[in-house]
Structure formats: C-alpha cells, structure tokens
Amino acid sequence: MVAIAFFMLPLVGLLVRSPWPDSWQELSDPQTLDAVRLSLFASLTSTAVAIVLGVPLAWLYARTSFPGRSLLRALTTLPMVLPPVVGGIALLLAFGRNGLLGAWLEAAFGISLPFTPAAVVMSETFVAMPLLVLTVESGLRSMDGRLEDAARTLGASRWTVFRRVTLPLVAPSVAAGAVLCWARALGEFGATITFAGNFPGQTQTMPLDIYIALQTNPGASFILSLAMLAISIVVLIGLGRRWLRPT
Amino acid sequence: MSLTVDLGLRLGLLDLAAAFELEANQSLAIVGPNGAGKTTLLRALAGLEPIASGHIELDGQVLNDAAAGVHVLPEHRPVGVVFQDYLLFPHMSVLDNIAFGPRCRGLATRAARQSAWAWLERLGLAAHAEERPGRLSGGQQQKVALARALAGGPRLLLLDEPTAALDASARASVRRELMEHLGNFAGMRILITHDPLEAVTMSDRLVVLEGGRIVQAGSGEEVTQRPRSDYVADLIGVNLLRGLGTDDGIVLDGGGQLFAGRAERGPIFVVIHPRAVALYRLRPEGTPRNVWPGRVTAVDLHAERVRVRVEGSPPIVAEITPESVRALDLGAGGEVWVSVKASEISTYPR
To answer: Where are the domains of chain A?
Structure first.
C-alpha cells in the first residue's frame, strides 16, 4: 500500500495542481514548441542511430567470441549505470573543443560539436543505446542459433542470414529495445545539459525546459511535465501489449 | 560421384576421428550413443564445424583440407541437411521455407516459389503452402524440412535423426513416406539414427560411432550378426561378452568360463541370444556344460517376452516367457542358476 501510494501520489499531484486553464497557452509558447520539436527530433534521431549501430554490436556480443569481449561489453553498457552528468563530462572531454577527438575535428574540419543539436543527439545516444544493445542481445541469445546454421546450409551468406532470418526473428526485441531507448533519450537531462548546454531553440530539450520553467514559471513546468507523462503512458501501453504484462 | 571423409576435430569433451567413404547413390547410416559425435560429424560435413585435421572430398571437389587450410563455407557446399528438430523458419510460410534455398542459390523469387510449389504438390501439402510451419503436424514438418533440404539440389543429403522428434505411432508411416521421397533423390545420403530398424531399412551401410571413434562398419547384416560394441549389442538385444578362446573353452575377460560348440582361439567376441538363456531356481541336472549361479537384478516386460538381467560371472540377460517368470517367482528376485547350451554360443575374432 505504501509503495503504491508512493508512486501514485506524485502523479495525482501533477494532475491536480496543474493550471489546466493555461495549458493551451503554455504549450503553444514558441520556446516550448521549440523544445518539443527538438526533443522529438533528437530522441528519434538518437534511436535511429542506436538501431543502426547497436543491433550489429548486439549481434557481435551474442554470436561471436573474442578476447576481451566481456570487458568491452561491460564498458559499452557502462553509460546505463553511470550518472548522466558524468557521461556528459566524458563526452565533453572526448568531443569538446579541447577534447581527444574534438580538438582534431575542429582543427581539421572546423567542426565544433558541443552546444549544438548534434551534441544533444550524441548525449542521448550515449546514455540510451546500451538499453537497446542489451535488449537485442538477450533477444538474440534466446533465439535458436541453429536456425542460422540451417539457413547457411541452404546457401545463404552471412549477410543474407542476418537479413532474412536473424533480423526478422529478433524484430520484437529490436522494437522493444528501440522504445526503451527512445523513452530514455526523451527524458535525458544530465548528459545533455553538460555536453550540449541549454540554448533555447538549439539544445534546450523538454526536460531542460521543464527544469528552467520550474524556477521562473512553475505552472508551465507542470503542464510540460504532464505532456511528458502523457508520452510515457502512451509508450507503456504500446509496450505493455507484449512486454509488461505479468506472466 | 563419391565422398571421401577422413577428419579429426575436438569440440569440448569430444575427440572425433572418423574416416569412411561413400559411393554414388549409396546411403550410410551412422549409429551410436548420445555424445558419440554423430551430430558433430554431420555438422563438419555441412561445413558448420571446422576440422582440425584431415580432409573431406565430394565428387573430386575438396570441401575441407586442414593441412592446406581449405574450408569451403556451408553456403557453397552442395550439401543439404534435414536437422533433428527440422529447424524450419518460424517467421516464413511453408512455401517460403522451401523456396529459401533455391532463392539463395540464385533463382529469381518467382521461379523459386514455383519450384517450391512443385515440391508441396508432390508431398501433398499444397493446401498448407501459406501457413506457418508451426501449425503443421510433426510428420508434415518433417516433409517440409526434407523438401527444403532437397530443393537446392544437393549432391549429398544429411539427415539427423529424422524421426526422433515424432511419437512412436507416427514414426513407421513417416519413415515409409520418407523412403518413398528419398527414392527420387539421386545423390548420396548419410543418416544419423538411434533406431536400429531405421538404420538397417534406410541405408546400404552402417557405421557405428562410439566416443568419437568408428568401432564398426559394414552392411546392416554384418553389423547386427557380429556386433563389436556393447552399444550395438544392446540395440539389437543380444549378450556380448569378450574372452579368450583356449583349448579348455572360453576364458571370459570379466571372469567366468564358457564352452562353445566351435570357438576360435585367441581374443574373441562371444554372442549369446537372450532366448537361448534358461533360468532355474535349483541347479539343473543333466548335460548342459554352461551352468553358473547368479542373482536377478532386473525384470522387464517386452511385448510377450520378459527380459531378466542376472548378475553373475558372466552377467547375462535372459529372455523367457511370463509363465516361466511366474513359475520361478522371479518377480521377487533372488538367486538363480543360468544355463546356456554350447551350440547356442557363437564366437568371432576380436
């Protein structure tokens, strides 16, 4: 009972104390709209990047063995447990103006990543991709690898096997991983504010906007929080069909 | 058209070393206990397992040559496999499962599906073409697996325990149909099985694999008449003993002595059919020379006969009628006398 109340009361508070009459006005504020637009763009882009990069990585972890595999696996899932602010600082040290790669990028191409929308995408990908990798990896592990063998004996190359057998069979895991990854990216705060900053219209995502609004215009932050709550509920329902239902 | 295999490989606890040859149109059955390396051997032939030494050659084409570092990838071998639990692709229709091979081997989608259709019609499964394989019965799935393996036109077909996943009632009819469809297949076949009947009826030659080694090879008749391993002896249900033939009878390795009507000298195998073994509660009077005491350790009913295991020197299995079991009150176990006529004991060199 205590646990339920602990979870439910904050949600009720959010619903009850929000200035509903002002909601439309708050939501249509240009700065808010920019934040919503940027949040959707950055979270979807980072999810796409995570799928493109993460699925092959998950395949590598699930289907091959090489020296140092478990260490590498641990390191690439580290961002999941790392405080996001630390992740942001790490990104800054790697891709910042004076960072390991950042300094070279700036010198060679004049590219400066920090405090740009690209940095938002990078922060979100960094923090959220491990969720997708782990989900897809466990999906691959629970799939019968001998189906891939069977496909090989039928004349399919490794790539054809991946495309026509492996991928369709782990598609549910990829979808679940992508949703988790997207939700995590949407809510990302710490790494983003550290590596990408908080410039309205440039790098200010919804969570940043909510946090800033809380200090100046609490009503607006409540409404924005409600909007994010609605998004989360939609995701939960979408997932719940196949995933979160107790068995 | 021939297959030459001479390979060695290690996988976990298994140390596999096997050599055999197969002529065009011939079929070979590999029998052996679990863990003997049968499936690993099959996977090596399919290219799914690398070999550490030796070579595999099919119709003059080198598939493996460990010394030269040659390993032809599975997708480039003219080898079809029917896996033990079929491994049909659950996300494709039955038709697409069969069309998968031809498509991968370069046929256009349309042509591949047409050839798959022809297979389904031949197998009487055309009505199920668009269904997922999970909806088919075990026997139907097996036919689809066979069609899928053959649709690519392999020259060597490997079957891993094709009827093991079926229940006993379906097995005989599925085996008969399998033989029918295999009759049209012109290539070589290798069949892995636990079932001695399957081994003898579905293949020209038998190889017995135990602990990664071939312990016996020959025709079905040779292998079953003169078993050279406990595994085969158990499969066909005879007592197999090892001993030394001397002028004073056979001295058994495990202790005990037997007299055969006609026995070779030197190390020999001794085969005694369980039906030739008689049991008594009291020491029998009269002529039989092979009489020894023992203790009943197990009594199993097999169809109309009862198999009684007797621990003694040597240990032996007797097959007697249920009436005798009652008359001797063997259900209670206890001490018995075993007797075997000398003329019922056959021997051959080890």
So the answer is: 36-197
Please report, as a single letter, which amino acid is at residue B324.
S
DSSP-based three-state secondary structure for B84: coil
B48 and A149 within 8 Å at the Cβ level: the answer is: yes
Alpha carbon B300 to its chain's center: 23
Report ipTM (2 d.p.): 0.79
Of B46, B89, B91, the CB nearest to A153: B46
Q: Does A141 touch chain B (CB under 8 A)?
A: no
pLDDT tens-digit series, residues A113-167? 888 889 999 999 999 999 999 999 999 999 998 999 999 999 999 999 999 999 9
At B25, give phi and psi (nearest 5°).
65, 0
pLDDT digits (tens, 9 = 90+) for A47-90: 999 999 999 999 999 988 888 888 999 998 888 888 999 999 99
Q: Tokens 């694999």 correspond to what residue?
A: B209
β-bridge mates for residue B33, sequence order: none
Question: Which CATH architecture best describes the domain A36-197?
Answer: Orthogonal Bundle (1.10)
- B156-160 and B79-82 as β-strands: parallel, antiparallel, unpaired? parallel
Question: Which residues have CB under 8 Å from A11's CB, separation 6+?
Answer: A229
Tell me the shortest Cα–Cα distance from A167 to chain B, in angstroms.
11
CB of A169 less than 8 A from some CB of B: yes
Alpha helices in chain A (DSSP H): 2-17, 23-27, 30-63, 69-81, 84-95, 102-109, 117-142, 146-153, 158-161, 167-187, 190-195, 206-216, 218-240
**Residue B203 three-state SS:** coil
Domains of chain B: 2-231 (3.40.50.300), 237-349 (2.40.50.100)
Dist. CA B164–CA B180, nearest whole Å: 18
Q: In terms of DSSP bridges, do strands B188-193 and B156-160 run parallel, antiparallel, or are they unpaired?
A: parallel
